[in-house]
Inverse folding.
């Protein structure tokens, strides 16, 4: 179906090109878009003197052969000439120079958008498309039923195409090309058509089609997965030239590497741009929490500042578009990580608050007058903060960026100093999240009622909060599986005479366990509650393995227990600053000893030990951390 | 040219199917469906008859049929040309998906309008005996005249199709020019009787549509022969326009997609 000029050229070149086993032969192909834009009459009349000869070369000398039965992926960034190449192979574009020979095979091009005549019915369009693809009316008639069935259009097939939804459009287009099988199929980004069901079906059909050994297929796709699954050869086009042509895995690897590099360059350019462009705003504070729902320190501090420091501009960084931050205030500006808005905020904030290793994910350069505050989540916890996998690069960056470390105890100060924040200044304000634990009676009572109502805790029941920490994969077989809630309930009832409701809160990275928790009997999944501090206030007993919240729980002067069946392994992997036995909490390695610990619980001795522990660690938590930190910020602002 | 005939053969079934489908969809979309193909010229015939006979008090013998024949032939020509100007844009979807020789699209439009004209001319056959028009052997002349008209129309359409791609607002101009030709083709008046010499002869010998319409009336209504020399001349003009059109389209058609 190629226009005459080309066909002649082709047959002349056939002798040179030879090889009939090739389904597609392309030699030194050049295609350019001369900017022959349609002009108005006025322009035509008045611009005769010079016709603008702007030329954009989409394909700049491309040669390749594709053997019959090959499945070739075509990759490249936007505007690299992929679609143009496919179109010219389909005979829609004539090349400016070079040869395309499809050796008399019939070709179909499948691409986004529709090649239908809107006034005509689906039925007529099936026949017209088929005729144009080189099939006879009889051949189409034979496949007609199958096309209609595959397209799932039903009676709509007799309605004009203009009444179709866009999904129906593409379904029909796909069905026609898929059922009327051509020798050469050119597929342009269309493997995701319609709803999920149809997508699956069309993908399967496509796999079936292209696996036919006589069918030659070229696929343009931006999805590496699709290419990897379907193609046995990949051609990488860049700016109209072939960069690589070869085995799928290797070519894709090169391509991805290149794209990553480009992306990094862009990101870097972004950063440099904003760094130079913006000035530090004296009263702007950037809040950069690790995760929207588990960042009590930053959240409480934010609420405090919104209330008490009305002339400060607060900017909150979100990870994902749909992340809930749990604060509703029109004054609080929210930016999405790694967007231009984000970089602008990062470089223009006088004060930056980071409760994890967030700021160091990227190589950010700090203005001299900017101040970065680091808050540890662990505080009095015994887990080694450097035990988590943190890359050397991040450690270096963090050491360079951080100015102040927020601490609540001599112990935590020592933790900072023994890590890569060796020589940083310490702000001994205490942790904002713990202010709540020191709050007045009525405030706490209100919170307790809030939690009880939220989880519909029966009147008179006491609350047990069980919240273990996260384990890396190798330690996945934790105590969660061995925890016997019936036994726990019985032990508590025996010792204290309480009916208890058990709130179980898995670590945020353990969301996969929620379903399991919800199935367990007599247990409430508290994983969805945003602030663990509020749960702590509501709880009467706390149980964990090594999670640091239990140390904050001490301020509430309520009984806490450790249940840590795999303490040894965990210690080896993660490292403890001090042994579990040094904590005021009774430690149990199995269910039996947990029950025994509860039975033998001595309130007086426990409280004494707790006081001793806090004293020993040099704790200076007083319940005014928000106020003290805000005051510190104010001094920095000058 | 060889490619033209080859394509004609290859796309024959496409042209036929597309023509049928277009006609069908046009019919399906309106209340009185195919009756419009007759009603439209019929109503205009009434309008022009009213204006000529009652307002101006001047007419021609068998005036209603006279106007009806003129309108039918004119509609065929003007509708085909009008559609050709916008053709590539309206087929954008199809031509950016699959190769199709663009003159095939013209042939579809011409076939469509030819069919509509044929339906309308059935009414002429009915009206002739009603008005007691004497029939003579000159009637056979309509065959070469129609043929010439189709070839000439194709030539105009192919040139307009090409120009319409590159000049975005050509359609507006074409409408005006067609209106001018409409008045110069004697649709509702007789050029031979109403236009003084030598202008009448000029019009008939320069404007093919005027000549064709006049010839149709002479053959069907007035028992007159046609000037075969002029007819042959216009046929040749039509052939040359068509060949130029086909040649230009063939040369440029694969750039159309880049422009629209």
């Amino acid at each position: 179906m190629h226009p005459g000029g080309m066909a002649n050229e082709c047959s002349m070149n056939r002798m040179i090109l030879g090889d009939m086993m090739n389904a597609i032969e392309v030699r030194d192909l050049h295609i350019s878009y001369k900017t022959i834009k349609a002009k108005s009459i006025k322009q035509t009349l008045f611009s005769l003197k010079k016709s603008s000869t702007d030329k954009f070369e989409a394909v700049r000398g491309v040669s390749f052969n594709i053997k019959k039965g090959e499945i070739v992926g075509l990759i490249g960034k936007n505007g690299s000439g992929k679609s143009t190449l496919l179109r010219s192979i389909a005979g829609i574009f004539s090349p400016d120079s070079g040869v395309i020979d499809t050796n008399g095979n019939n070709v179909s091009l499948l691409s986004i958008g529709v090649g239908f005549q809107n006034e005509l019915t689906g039925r007529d369009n099936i026949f017209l498309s088929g005729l144009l693809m080189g099939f006879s009316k009889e051949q189409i008639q034979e496949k007609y039923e199958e096309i209609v069935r595959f397209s799932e259009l039903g009676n709509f097939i007799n309605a004009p195409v203009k009444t179709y939804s866009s999904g129906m459009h593409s379904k029909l287009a796909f069905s026609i090309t898929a059922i009327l099988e051509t020798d050469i199929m050119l597929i342009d980004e269309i493997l995701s058509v319609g709803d999920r069901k149809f997508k699956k079906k069309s993908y399967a059909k496509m796999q079936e089609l292209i696996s036919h050994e006589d069918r030659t297929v070229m696929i343009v796709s931006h999805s590496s997965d699709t290419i990897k699954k379907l193609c046995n050869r990949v051609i990488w086009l860049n700016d109209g030239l072939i960069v690589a042509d070869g085995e799928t895995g290797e070519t894709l690897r090169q391509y991805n590497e290149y794209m990553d590099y480009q992306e990094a360059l862009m990101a870097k350019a972004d950063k440099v741009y904003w760094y130079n462009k913006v000035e530090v705003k004296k009263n702007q504070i950037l809040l950069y929490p690790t995760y929207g729902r588990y960042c009590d320190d930053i959240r409480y501090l934010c609420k405090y500042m919104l209330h008490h420091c009305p002339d400060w501009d607060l900017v909150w960084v979100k990870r994902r578009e749909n992340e809930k931050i749990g604060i509703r205030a029109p004054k609080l500006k929210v930016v999405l990580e790694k967007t231009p808005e984000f970089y602008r905020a990062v470089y223009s904030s006088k004060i930056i608050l980071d409760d994890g290793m967030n700021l160091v994910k990227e190589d950010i350069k700090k203005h001299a007058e900017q101040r970065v505050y680091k808050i540890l989540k662990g505080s009095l916890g015994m887990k080694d903060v450097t035990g988590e996998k943190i890359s050397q690069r991040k450690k270096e960056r963090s050491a360079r960026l951080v100015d102040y470390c927020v601490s609540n105890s001599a112990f935590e100060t020592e933790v900072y100093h023994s890590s890569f924040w060796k020589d940083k200044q310490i702000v001994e304000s205490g942790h904002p999240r713990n202010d709540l634990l020191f709050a007045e009676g009525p405030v706490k009572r209100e919170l307790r009622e809030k939690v009880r109502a939220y989880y519909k805790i029966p009147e008179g029941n006491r609350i047990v909060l069980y919240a273990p920490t996260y384990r890396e994969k190798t330690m996945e077989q934790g105590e969660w599986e061995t925890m016997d809630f019936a036994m726990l309930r019985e032990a508590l009832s025996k010792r204290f005479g309480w009916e208890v409701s058990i709130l179980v809160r898995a670590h945020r990275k353990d969301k996969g366990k929620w379903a399991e928790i919800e199935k367990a009997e007599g247990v409430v999944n508290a994983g969805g509650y945003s602030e663990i501090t509020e749960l702590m206030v509501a709880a009467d007993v706390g149980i964990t393995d090594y999670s640091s919240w239990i140390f904050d729980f001490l301020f509430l002067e309520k009984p806490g227990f450790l249940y840590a069946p795999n303490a040894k392994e965990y210690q080896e992997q993660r490292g403890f600053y001090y042994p579990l036995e040094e904590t005021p909490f009774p430690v149990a390695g199995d269910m039996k000893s947990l029950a025994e610990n509860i039975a033998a619980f001595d309130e007086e001795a426990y409280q004494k030990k707790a006081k001793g522990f806090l004293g020993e660690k040099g704790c200076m938590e007083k319940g005014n951390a928000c106020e003290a930190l805000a005051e510190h910020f104010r001094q920095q602002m000058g | 040219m060889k490619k033209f005939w080859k394509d004609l053969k290859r796309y024959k079934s496409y042209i036929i199917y597309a023509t049928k489908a277009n006609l069908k969809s046009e019919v399906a979309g309106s209340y009185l469906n195919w009756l419009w193909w007759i009603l439209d010229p019929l109503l205009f015939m009434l309008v022009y008859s009213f204006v000529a006979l009652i307002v101006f008090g001047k007419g021609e013998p068998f005036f209603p049929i006279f106007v009806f024949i003129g309108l039918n032939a004119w509609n065929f020509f003007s509708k085909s040309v009008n559609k050709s100007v916008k053709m590539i844009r309206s087929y954008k979807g199809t031509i950016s998906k699959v190769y199709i020789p663009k003159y095939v699209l013209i042939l579809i439009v011409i076939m469509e309008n030819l069919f509509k004209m044929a339906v309308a001319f059935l009414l002429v056959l009915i009206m002739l005996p009603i008005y007691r028009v004497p029939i003579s052997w000159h009637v056979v002349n309509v065959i070469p005249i129609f043929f010439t008209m189709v070839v000439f129309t194709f030539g105009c359409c192919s040139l307009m199709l090409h120009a319409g791609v590159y000049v975005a607002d050509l359609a507006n101009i074409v409408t005006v020019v067609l209106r001018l030709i409409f008045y110069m083709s004697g649709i509702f008046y007789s050029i031979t009787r109403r236009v003084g010499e030598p202008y009448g002869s000029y019009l008939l010998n320069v404007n093919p549509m005027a000549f064709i319409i006049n010839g149709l009336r002479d053959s069907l209504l007035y028992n007159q022969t046609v000037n075969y020399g002029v007819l042959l001349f216009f046929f040749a003009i039509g052939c040359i326009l068509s060949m130029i059109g086909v040649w230009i389209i063939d040369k440029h058609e694969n750039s159309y997609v880049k422009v629209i």
Summary: The longest helix of chain A spans residues 248-277. Chain A touches chain B at residues 1-5, 33-34, 36-41, 44, 87, 90-94, 108-109, 111, 113-121, 124, 127-129, 131-133, 136-137, 160 (CB under 8 Å). Chain A has three domains: 4-244, 278-434, 440-616. The two ends of chain A are 77 Å apart (CA to CA).
